[in-house]
Design brief:
The complex is a heterodimer of chains A (about 90) and B (about 375). By secondary structure, chain A is an alpha+beta fold. Helix content of chain A is about 35%, strand content about 35%. In chain A, a hairpin with a 2-residue loop joins β1 and β2. The radius of gyration of chain A is 22 Å and the shape is elongated. Chain B is of the alpha/beta class. Helices cover about 40% and strands about 15% of the residues of chain B. Chain B has a five-stranded parallel beta sheet with strand order 2-1-7-8-9. In chain B, strands 4-3-5-6 form a four-stranded parallel beta sheet, sandwiched between helices. Chain B has a two-stranded antiparallel ribbon with strand order 10-11. In chain B, α7 packs across α12. The chains are: A alpha+beta (about 90), B alpha/beta (about 375).
């Protein structure tokens, strides 16, 4: 029910955008967003754009994945160092 | 824009799953409250990648599932009324009412039409001015602004034969209720991504403050969900060590702190917040909408007088316990026997976003 699909704004006429969802185009009302422009990626739900997606934030999220996964590497490194200093073997 | 596939890369998924196993050193229960998360977790098989001590529970996140039987019966009564066209999202069609369903009523001649957008209800109302067109207003904060904007558009166009049956629900009051349930050992909420697009991450601050309950707003791709789980587990560890829970945002590309102000303004113009009845859960304070005085003419409940039969709840169905996270679909004796998607007993098996339907489709053979 809360499914929303990202698509690229191709045209804007009055308050209605033509949005490209990877080859399929559909109209979406822009009544719920401010300042959408051609070329923006919008999140569309039930025929309405509900947000303009942020590319900068998307890049930050990809970096976050690496950071969160990287925390494991650091922990593992920490344990390996502990094991080495204890004279034991790394797990 | 960044290729969506980068949010489902396998090497990073493996690293995040390893991190999750690292962080779980005792029983932990995390709950999502969004049907789209329910489906994503089942569809991507994420539950089976989790350590056995980590439970991913589905809360009352399927709007169709939490719509009380009396509202389903009212929708059916409206469909039976002469001169009425009922327009609805497809999810509502097969939900069993006390004695029928919208699908059955349509087969018997009622005018029930599935729409993709509530705006289509205005087209129907314009094309058929001698009919009363009703839109079934089901959904959370993601959907309610689209219906509110539709009401504003209808008012602009002077459509007088369109009404909405308001059955909307708000998520934060349900989270308070879940956090306060006696004996309910929840450790954190996977907060709904697209609801949060509208309400913003700030809306969860009272939940975190009142219950010291970690809240992370999470997107819907596999890496989004795994990263959200890692963030929650790190918070759970901190809270158990005496720390303070926070609201975090994993889904920054679609969710801001304050949310979609324009959508919030449209909502508050058309609707007032009111107490609302949730199926199998009961009334939750300030968890629904009624029309504001300015737009009360659009309220199907007030405008169209129909006789609604006395609600009869399905017997043996444990949807209520499933939606509160105390039972899994596979704990229900009716699951995949008497209750199947083709012939559902309860709403959790009807809606594609119901926990039972998601389990049936993606996890039945694995559990």
């Amino acid at each position: 029910m809360c499914l929303a699909v990202p698509g690229r704004v191709e045209e804007i006429t009055d308050d209605v955008a033509l949005v490209d969802f990877g080859g399929v185009t559909r109209e979406a009302s822009l009544a719920l967003v401010s300042g959408a422009s051609v070329g923006d990626y919008v999140l569309v739900h039930a025929g309405f754009a509900i947000e303009i997606l942020s590319e900068a934030e998307a890049r930050e999220t990809l970096a976050l994945f690496r950071d969160l996964a990287g925390a494991l590497d650091q922990d593992e490194r920490g344990r390996a160092e502990e094991a080495t200093s204890d004279g034991g073997e790394g797990r | 824009m960044i290729d969506q596939r980068r949010f489902s890369s396998e090497p990073e998924a493996r690293s995040l799953v390893d991190r999750i196993h690292e962080l779980v050193d005792g029983p932990v229960s995390l709950m999502e409250v969004c049907g789209t998360h329910t489906v994503a977790i089942s569809r991507f098989g994420l539950r089976h990648l989790m350590p056995s001590e980590l439970k991913l529970l589905s809360g009352p996140g399927c709007p169709v599932c939490v719509t009380p039987q009396s509202d389903i019966d009212r929708a059916i009564a409206l469909a039976r009324a002469p001169g009425v066209v009922v327009t609805t999202f497809g999810d509502m069609m097969r939900v069993p009412g006390s004695s029928s369903s919208l699908e059955r009523e349509r087969a018997e001649g009622a005018d029930v039409r599935i729409v993709y957008s509530p705006l289509e209800a205005i087209d129907v109302a314009s094309a058929e001015p001698d009919k009363e067109v009703v839109f079934l207003g089901v959904g959370f904060e993601t959907t309610s602004p689209t219906v509110a904007a539709t009401v504003l558009a209808a008012a602009d166009e002077g459509a007088t034969n369109l009404t909405v049956l308001p059955m909307f629900k708000l998520v934060p009051p349900a989270l308070h209720m879940l956090a306060e349930l006696p004996g309910r050992a929840l450790d954190g909420f996977i907060c709904p991504g697209h609801v949060s697009t509208i309400i913003g991450t700030d809306a969860y601050a009272p939940i975190v403050e009142r219950h010291n309950m970690p809240c992370v707003v999470v997107g819907f791709e596999p890496l989004d969900i795994l990263a959200g789980v890692v963030m929650l587990l790190e918070q759970v560890r901190a809270v158990r060590a005496g720390g303070v829970a926070r609201v975090e945002n994993e889904y920054g590309r679609a969710v801001s702190g304050r949310g979609n102000r324009r959508a919030q303004e449209v909502l508050s113009r058309v609707f007032d917040v009111d107490d609302s009845e949730w199926r199998e859960i009961g009334s939750i304070e300030q968890s629904g909408y009624r029309f504001s005085d300015e737009f009360e003419n659009y309220d199907a409940r007030a405008r169209l007088d129909v006789e609604v039969e006395e609600a009869v709840e399905p017997t043996g169905c444990i949807c209520g316990e499933i939606m509160l996270g105390t039972k899994l679909p596979t704990d229900c004796p009716l699951f995949a026997t008497r209750c199947v998607p083709r012939d559902p007993v309860g709403p959790c098996m009807v809606s594609s976003e119901g926990a039972c339907a998601a389990f049936y489709k993606y996890e039945r053979r694995k559990t």
